[in-house]
Amino acid sequence: MNKTGDVNRKDIPEDSPKQQGAIDKQASKPLRLLAQNSEDFRILSGLLQDSVLVPANVRWQKKANRFTMPLSRFCWELVEQSSSSFFRIASCLVVEGVERAQQRGFKKGAQAEVVNLLACELLATGDLRFTFSAEAELCLFGAREEATPLLARLTDIGEVQEAQSIPQHRL
Predict the structure, then answer these.
(1) If DSSP codes are grouped into helix, strand and coil, which group holds residue 95?
(2) Contact at 8 Å (CB) between 89 and 49?
(3) How many Å apart are CA 143 and CA 160, to the nearest integer?
(4) pTM value > 0.90
(5) Do 39 and 163 contact (CB within 8 A), yes or no?
């Protein structure tokens, strides 16, 4: 990420991309979503599930109250189109209105560590919680004295790339 907060492609972890498989180009158009209420964040959480990212590439621009998270998003919306190929896309999540951030469970000094984003949730307080693999967590807090909610924008910034596999979860 550069000094202006723009995301460089090198900040986004690769999933050993292969040549793009046969998918409907109309359905694979890049996403540009805005989330500002609990229903929006439920949808956003589903789209972000199983994204991978390097925590060292996440940035909080304190003066701008902006939090930027470059990631490699698993394209769950394309799974039904192709039973033999699965896809990821370079994406960026930007959260506006962040007054404070708190993290727990990330390994200190593990600059190249890749974590899996499991869910994001808008809490009753209006704050946003991200849950990651290895019991790591990130909470973003908005201004308490203002009625301005946190606002998140998810933007796909790359081309759809074939992923090695579909994420698996134990129940």
Answers:
(1) strand
(2) no
(3) 36
(4) no
(5) no
